[in-house]
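Work package 3, deliverable 3.1, input record:
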Amino acid sequence: MVTMRDLPEQELLYGHKACPGCAAGIIARMILKVTGERTFLAYPASCLSTVTSIYPQMAFSVPSFTSPFPATGAVLSGMAAAVKAKKMQDVTVLGIAGDGGTADIGLQALSGAVERGHKILYVCYDNEAYMNTGIQRSSLTPYGASTTTSPAVGCAGSIGERKFKKNLFEIMMAHRIPYCATASPSYLPDFLRKIEKAKNTDGPSFLHILAPCPTGWGFASDRTLEVGRLAVETGLWFLAEYENGKAKLNLVPREFKSVQAYLGGQKRFKHLTPQEWATIEEQRDREWADMKEKWPVS
Amino acid sequence: MGKPTTVPFRYPASKKDMPVGPYADAGVLVEINAGWRIVRPVLDGGKCVKCQRCWLICPEGAVDRMGESYTVDVNFCKGCGLCAYECPTKAIIMVKEGEKDE
Amino acid sequence: MNRKAAEERSFISGNEAVAFGVRLCRPQVIAAYPITPQTTAVEKLAEFIEKCELDCEYVNVESEHSAMAAAMGAAMMGCRTFTASSSQGLLYMCEMLHYVSGSRFPIVMMNANRTVAAPWNIYGDHRDSMAMRDAGWIQLYVENVQEALDMMIQAYKLAEHPQVQTPVMVCLDGFVLTHTYEVASIPAPEAVDAFLPAYSPSENILDLSAPKSLCISVSPEWQTEFRFQQQEAMEAARQIIPVIDGEFAEHFGRSHGSLIEEYRCEDAEYILVAMGSVAGTTRLVVDSLREEGLKVGLVKVRFFRPFPKAEFAALASRVKGVGVIDREVSFGYEGALYTEAKAALAGGASFPKTLNFIAGLSGRDITKENIAAMYRKVMAHSAGQEEQEVQFVALRWEQW
């Protein structure tokens, strides 16, 4: 089991141009510390590709490829097939994509790749909007968030995003994927444990990781992990795993903090009123009741 | 040390030096990110308990945990302040660029 | 080894010929999504793999876009790959075609030429591949089952050539060629191995021993030079195509020609230009009109990209009239083959009279009578008769 001290010194992601305090930086860095040098990496158009591979500054030190936006799952499938064809041993085929490239334009390719059972590790870093192109709304944008295409414009009824997040974790479960999990860089030992489990899965694995975004969500660059903690403490992000056909919750707060603790610290929610807070809390309670009924706590 | 260093950029001088295809060697950096920051981290060795948390959570990987005391690669630190905020003993403070460390 | 004896004579369809040809090239990964009329080609390949007659990974992708993406994923790992599509599927993977050619991966694909909706239709014309002519792929059109088989093998040699490194699209007319059965010779595996060695990729791959970032973002300052290289590779292909045909003839005793094939054009005064299976029908018409004493000939365009510019320029001053058969039309202008041929003819010492015949759309037969009528129109037009430059052949309400 990998521990913090085991992690290698080597930085396989270094010198990138992400915003200060970017969670994707932490996430990608940590994943590569676990998967190591013998990693083949594909990432689609996203913040990650833009900040790591604009000629000639190449921030990744593993062999990597900027995949077309909708195609990450398919490219990874081809890479995994090549690994089989060439009988390569002890390598990781890794994909790191944002919420757009995973749950929206990339969903078909991901579904196909997982359904076919290729040995790939697919990581979705979820900053809850199309951040790279300027903070536009995605299917993983939470209720009440103001984005440039679901803006809260100050008139009555303009609350930002009007739909709740798509449940990507359960979508992956529905594929009977060997292993999938939700994680947060704010809960590092849990996150590292999950990366390792995913890496060692004989077949496809999927990690859905919350990636608080200082620029897009509107908070100071040093609060990234604090925001990630509050997401879990208010129940607006859950830590769970699905393995061998069974799901379980990794952490169930005895009592949820009030959602304002989370919403209040981010500019994208500042327009919300107690009415929306209540709606968000009701939905949270409904989803948690449902999860606790279906899944045991680990 | 395990971190790529910057190299001066040399564009292919002639047609035959061009790569066949839009690829480039991985882990090659041609510029530093130091210019992004307004504040930089300063570590108080006395308070540091070497928990490695700053090394782990730095989005840039700029912390070096191998020496007697931890240091930060000033070429690539963007001054986000996460290390200072997350340090359990408050051993790191963010100091404005241009001001002295103490 | 007696080469002729080692070849197997078999009664196979165009699609099966593609499958046999691809099998001989020993691809390591095939990723394909079925679409009529390409289906029997990829089904045959799946059968070969399942029966252990081809050692290859088959990826049953969930769409054509993913088919090309997966093929590309394997190609960038240094594998020889294959995919196939048609019509809607080809257009669905349009973005990927550009991605592959821009990345310089030597993928070979078969396209079963089929029209593009709307209106909905599954039969053959060139609308699909013509829409992709600027995607940076080498494009060639085959006339019969033997050529389909042989060109799959030549395609890999061409694509993987160090000066080319450009993907190749081999086009077969939907149904008319894909599903038509002819007797063809299937070369022996050892003979193909001698002609086409195992794939040795360039530096342009994901390699743990020399990590690279592939398909990177390139700013306006540097992008032009990469595009220049793509153009240069196409120009290099012009010279390499006849060389490969020559080598193929040495190994297998068959030559299909270079960028074009001229049939009875030595003293021809009036020619038709055709691409794909209609060239076969046109040969018969040339023969019968020659018996009437008419000096007619056929120019079969084999490679549409790179375009046989010099060949047309050389032809221009030799002939009085040229008719071009197009199995699609670029609405608002002309058939694409006509436009490009006309421009190339303009590079010659003199410029013949030209006509464009839009025929065979969405699988409508181009009959021998239609073709004979085309020749007569070309001749009349060259003699001074007024003819509409772009003509739809045999519209139901017209006398043709």
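Chain A has one domain: 23-294.
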